[in-house]
Amino acid sequence: MFRSCFSREDAFKWFIIAAVGFMLRSDHLGVTSIMRELELCSDKLYACMIHFFHSTAWTLAKLQGKWLEIVQKSGLIYDEFGKPIFIGDGVKKPKEGKHMPGVKKTHQESGNSSKPEYTMAHLFGALGIVVGNGLKQFCLPISMTIQDGCQPILEWIESEYATDSHVTCLVRQACKAAALMCLGCFLIMDSYFLSEPALAAMAAEAIKTGKELVTLITKAKSDYTGFEKPGKYSGRGRRCLVGKKIKLFDLFVERVDAFTATQLHVYGKTQAVQYYCIDLLWGRNLKQELRFVLTVMKDWKTIIVCTDLNLHPEQIIQLYCYRFKIEVLFRAFNQCIAGLHYHFWNKYVPRLNPFETAKAVAERLAMITDLKKRESIISTYRAIEGFVMSCCIATGILQLCALNFTQEINDSPVRWMRTYTNIVPSEDSTQVCMRKSFIHIYDKCPKLGIVKIVSEKRALIESFLEEAG
What we know:
The protein is of the alpha+beta class and 469 residues long. 42% of the residues lie in helices and 21% in strands. The strands form two sheets. Strands 1, 2, 3, 4, 5, 6, 7, 10, 11, 12 and 13 form an eleven-stranded mixed sheet that branches. The protein has a two-stranded antiparallel sheet with strand order 8-9. 37% of the residues are buried.
């Protein structure tokens, strides 16, 4: 199904080898581990694999669109209250390379004390969709692109996201994905993405498509304030745009008697929840009406925000609890697939100075005017995103296999575990099962398309040895 994304047959075959290699490899030493796992140990084949990521025979946009189409046709997209669920978040990957495009000094907003406050890293915007059944749900990665520190490169290639920030870029990508699926959907994000530019970007995309396809559900920060609707105009002076100012977290005390107590199934179990719902105007300049759901669960107090004023508060709480699934995805993406363990660099990228501001680094990159150097840097940038996108597809295939072949994987002796946390295997268990099975598949199914492609490349090694002989 991916064949139409590639203008050359050989590029398509190397894509298949890359995706299969990411699923099967037992170590995470870059492209070398793929060649070693599939027994394609040749300098010439290694060079061909590296060239694939730099190739112009494919584009990231086509690959993302086709992957979303394949996921939609799988029939495994999980609907909640009649709509699919997209989850978006950012992930930072520290990089020590001095000549990597897009690397910049980033600040860690995470509350995890093990992370440094500042680090030199790539900032990726990740968009996933919830797939699964009644037993288990996964956040399947749809796309993962660099969304900060690369503005000069985006301007060189005339990208539509050249002027977007990380927040607006990810929101717009979610809106475009919903438009491709022709379905209304929920978009779950953390408090970092509740901003006026994000809401404005959603409104602009809704105007382009002619209808509002995305319902944003996020969380409010503790210092946020809202405004009641303005009262009736008395006919004197300037008309008021907003009414009384309300500090949201003060409502936990001021309106404690108005909270509703209920039992909700969240995070895999039924829990006691108290909530209070209020619709307020939000945004210094935007003044958009949003639904705020003040939630108390044990000792946890939070305010969940929704752009749909007709959605029930209990549904909003249940939907927001899916957000943590993207954190589980990041763990599998790093530990099983090692999707961010790339090593592409370019000598024309100005040497990174950790004491420079991100703006200064971008300005030095923008000063490059030589077309040959620009094309070389663009090629490296595309290689990084192509590597990560191939890993997204590999991760998604593992998740789909875990859902489609649950019984087969569970019956395999490789799947044995002392304690099972879920009937549906994880990405890690599925990967181990596939790795152990591939050698038997290769021997018993010589007509399988994947086996033919790997066999063809292995045959080239013998011809290389004969030529050198």
